[in-house]
Amino acid sequence: MKLSNYPIKTFKDAPSDAELISHQLMLRTGLIKRLASGIFTWMPFGLKVLRKIEQTVREEMDNSGAFEVLMPTIQPSELWQETKRWDDYGDLLLQIRDRHERLFCYGPTHEEVITDILRKSVKSYKQLPVNFYQIQTKFRDEIRPRFGVMRAREFLMKDAYSFHLNQDSLEEEYEKMDKTYEKIFTKLELDFRKVQATSGEIGGSVSHEFHVIAESGEDEIAFCDDENFAANVETLESENAPNGGELTYARGIEVGHIFQLGDKYSKAMKLEVLDSNGKNVNPYMGCYGIGISRIVAAAIEQNHDDKGIIWPSAISPFEILIIVLNDKDDSNVMDQAMKIYQELRSDGIEVAIDDRDERAGVKFADADLLGVPTQVIVGKRGLEQKKLEITSRSTGEKREAKIDEIVNHLKN
Fold this sequence. Notes:
The chain has helices spanning 21-28, 44-63, 77-82, 85-89, 111-121, 167-187, 264-268, 292-302, 332-346, 360-370, 380-385, 406-411, and strands spanning 32-36, 39-42, 67-68, 74-76, 94-97, 103-106, 130-139, 154-164, 192-196, 206-213, 219-224, 229-232, 248-262, 273-274, 280-281, 284-291, 304-305, 308-309, 320-324, 351-354, 374-378, 387-392, 398-402. It has twelve helices and 23 strands. Strands 3, 7, 8, 9, 10, 11, 12, 13 and 16 form a nine-stranded mixed beta sheet that branches. 30% of the residues lie in helices and 30% in strands. It is of the alpha+beta class. Helix 1 packs across helix 8 (292-302).
């Protein structure tokens, strides 16, 4: 991408109502634009980050054996009334009436819809176990949306639902999803902990949350890495880990949650299958969610400094940013920079070039604000010395590479 062609500008200052650093930086860099309270447009840079996270989640869910579907965002009220959650959810549900005065909601979650699908299509234990997932926009009418996309009303979520003949099968899939989530958050280069949690309005007997460690986190968690133990403080019953280990306390941002739901939904909605003895039984169910859009904010909360964002390489909108130090008397600078840019693009590397007619100080400030992992500086002095400077955004480390070796150096 040529930054000279990109119309969205960065901002030196953040809006006064942006409390969290992630919200401030996402607005300053133009990753998002606010449309209404808790509702945001994802602009090109932000969308690239969102899609990278989505791709990692999709790859690992597919590897786990889950099947991807896409369910409607609008759900009939009758389904929610079957499970009695229409009243339980209350004002969090955005309620809609169509021209025939039929009542619907904009889905905040899809347990009812997927259970309705299963009761219409699965009749035998031979069709189980099965796990369906989707990556889809959700809406919860938060009473006080805040912190940008961290607690928005409209958000992107991966939600998965598994069905099983018995508890043993459910626990097996639950463990598989546990491992899948650990792979996802590790590939996204996040410092996270899995913690024991309560199930809230989703229900069920067992649940765990996945928290990105950040000072701005809304939840307080306690963990002991020696025992591989972590829990939300509100669930703690002791001042030590189960085997007596010392607890460390930190703030966490919830980015994932997995649940064992049992037969709560299958009983309420009369989902039955025949078991191996020909008897009708209610399948057991699991539920597994990841906040795709929330991960973007959580990653920024964990990876930033006073200059701006420091993207983990796995989710950065670009791998490399070429900074051209313009010299109006020497067109060779821009020519050389464009040559490197085109060669990197031809090799499939995600690269942006700051070819704007701006001062060097502006370009360096914007480069640090945008947080692309690797910066390559192309200027007259470097061309004269036949060496170019490469800077790591995360460490600040600077190194040089010969011009005729720069592309191979960056590729490696």
